[in-house]
Amino acid sequence: MRQILEAFVIVTLGMGALLGVLAIAYRLTRFLPDKWQDGGRAWVFVFPAVFSMMVGLVWPLIKTTYDSFFNDTGDEFIGLQNYGDIWQNPDTRLTVFNTMVWVFLGTAVVVVIGLTVARFADGMRGESVWKSAIFVPGAISLVGSALIWRFVYDQDVGLLNAIAGSIPGLPASMGGDGDRLWLLERGFGGLEPPSTAPGFNTFLLVVIFIWVSSGLAVVVFSAAIKGVPDEILEAARVDGATERQTFFRVTLPYIRGTVVVVSTLTAIGALKAFDIVAVATGGRFSTSTVANEFYVTSFVQFRTGLAAALA
After folding, report:
1. Whole-angstrom Cα distance, residue 278 to residue 55?
2. Residue 13: phi, psi to the nearest 5?
3. Alpha helix locations (H) across 29-89?
4. What is the pLDDT of residues 28-43, one digit of tens each?
5. End-to-end CA distance of the chain, in Å?
6. Which of 45, 159, 166, 275 is the most buried (most CB within 10 A)?
7. CA distance 172 to 165
8. For residue 300, what is the DSSP state?
9. Is the dihedral of CA 85, 86, 92, 93 positive or negative?
10. CA 273 to chain centre
């Protein structure tokens, strides 16, 4: 309890000191020439953010890039060898392909689900309730989401095994025996992917990401669709356009910027896929992603050069 109070006091004093410095700097801008005062006041508030970005983002980026050209002990310059090792090592190369599945498939499905739900839920009875239910997974941490889905995929008490086992005639390779190791087995339905390609268990992890990310996409797309002017929609209907044609030829082009933003944010989230992988499989069974791999390479194997190249 004492440590918590000490931390609280330190943070409070630190924030108070920062606000005090900003207040003094703001007042000092009055002594600047008139043409510089507006710019000076702006920099008073912009500088802390710029400084934090330089310390927390730009410098680590430069340092990581520098380290990627050295060996694992950092005492020998080896050029692009670490980058070559990423592609020459089958296990590391697979993490790149797994990440591509997360980025392209995950983003595409999230956008399609978001647009579909936003379109058909718009104006329906209980719209807010349904959208809230879809948004709830997005309020759960990625660690919590992975834990929930570990129970779904569990061999003994998992919901997925219960469903698959209840389907008559379903092959055991598809879970028909109700005893499938979903997160361990790479093949599905008798098809076994090559060791250099993502397995079916990787796609099951992407499902968790889609489950978490779709809610925000629905909310954003719904707001964008409601922002389309009624005059444009009515003009399209008067010209004989069906609801489907109106959506694809009027609404969708109008909210194109929103689609790009949601796609970009979702792709960034997929690139950072670490929590789900770490909790669900720990990156084992050929499910590791680049984010998980550079964590393991750096903090478990202590191979700083290769980890920097992955990062």
Report:
1. 27
2. -65, -40
3. 34-53, 59-67, 81-88
4. 888 778 778 788 878 8
5. 38
6. 275
7. 9
8. T
9. negative
10. 6
